Amino acid sequence: MAQRPPEVLASRLGYLLKHAQIRLGEAVAAALAPYGIDARELAVLSLLSAEYPLSQLEAAGKLNVDRTTMVALIDGLEDKGLVERRRSNQDRRKNIVELTETGKERLRKADAARREVDRLFLAPLGLEGAEQLVSALQVLVIGDWESAP
Amino acid sequence: MAQRPPEVLASRLGYLLKHAQIRLGEAVAAALAPYGIDARELAVLSLLSAEYPLSQLEAAGKLNVDRTTMVALIDGLEDKGLVERRRSNQDRRKNIVELTETGKERLRKADAARREVDRLFLAPLGLEGAEQLVSALQVLVIGDWESAP
DNA sequence: TATTGTTATACTCTATAACTATA
DNA sequence: TATAGTTATAGAGTATAACAATA
Q1: Which of residues 1-20 of B touch strand C (CB under 7 A)?
Q2: In angstroms, rounded to a whole number, what is the distance separating the alpha carbons of residues A122 and B138?
Q3: Does residue A34 lie in a domain region?
Q4: Domain hosting residue B116, numbered range
Q5: Residue B10 falls within a domain, yes or no?
Q6: In what residue span(s) does the HTH marR-type domain sit (chains A, B) (predicted)?
Q7: B16 occurs within a structural domain
Q8: Which of A48, A115, A127, B123 shows the greatest Cβ crowding within 10 Å of its Cβ?
Q9: What is the CA radius of gyration of chain A?
Q10: Contact B2/A139 with Cβ under 8 angstroms?
Q11: Residue-level pLDDT at A80
């Protein structure tokens, strides 16, 4: 297990963000394990479910992963029976990726588990504090895009 | 450059923490480049400056890096003339790592640059919002240790 | 010619195992 | 026997380059 954070580092934004992410990541990984997927695969399923239809390259762009990485990601999800590739009729170079029925069901359950992890993770802040934290992070991460659409 | 975040992901804590870290990390890397060190090397210098004396293994433990990784890290800092190894007299297996005068000076300037990046990064939140965010992250990351000393 | 998906390859980062010296 | 530092090696993860199919 990790040691108590050194005081010099404990006030640095980078350190705090990194370790918050590490701890949340461990909790999410544990919560998702029973569903046989990891956090990134869940993100792929969520994206494909929300924005249809997406080709592999379009999904890769939105998730900020390389297209070669996306091939392996979709391979994995397809092996698990959660998504299917089909050729686009509009552009036969593109693979439209869609969730199977199994994939939709898995997404529903796994995402509920993830939301519960988020809730427990933020619990020490109280309801209001948790909402403030999420809002602040949204300003920092998404705020830029408001002005550059 | 990255695309605007997909709406399904923009409310997820993991996504927000990850991307906040990515953006801050890019800004910090750019700000530190003139000083010839990266964020982790700065963390090593800060730690060695704050807690003296530390052996390589002790420093590795506090920074949560493998001892073999620490060897390479110290090698790099030593090549740059920022730290020096010396055998501990109490236990000749241990390398005490200490900052050189150049290292102290570099730390001072580079850490000022890092603090300025943090300040600018948090500026959209206002002073109070920035303080609230840091406090909330400290509760999430450090809070646990209060009860387990 | 350019783009999409794919494969093979190379690269980066970190961890594991084995060795030396010290305890 | 165990620990600290080191080195060499292996592994995971990702990116780069080249290729086939399609536009």
Answers
A1: none
A2: 12
A3: yes
A4: 28-140
A5: no
A6: 10-142
A7: no
A8: A48
A9: 18
A10: no
A11: 96
Provide the domain count of chain B. 1
Q: What is the CATH number of the domain that holds B84?
A: 1.10.10.10
Q: Please name the residues in contact with B106: beta carbons below 8 A apart, sequence gap of 6 or more.
A: B35, B36, B37, B45, B82
Q: Which residues of A touch B5 (CB under 8 A)?
A: 141-142, 145
Residues of A from 60 to 99 whose C-beta is within 7 A of strand D: which are they? 65-66, 68-69, 72, 91-93
- pLDDT tens column, B78-109: 999 999 999 999 999 999 999 999 999 999 99
Nearest to B145 by CA among A142, A117, A48, A2: A2
Establish if A2 belongs to a structural domain: no
Q: Which residue is nearest to nucleotide C20 (CA to C1')?
A: B93
- pLDDT computed for residue A149 by the predictor: 45
**In this predicted model, what pLDDT tens digit does every residue of A78-99 receive, in sequence order?**
999 999 999 999 999 999 999 9
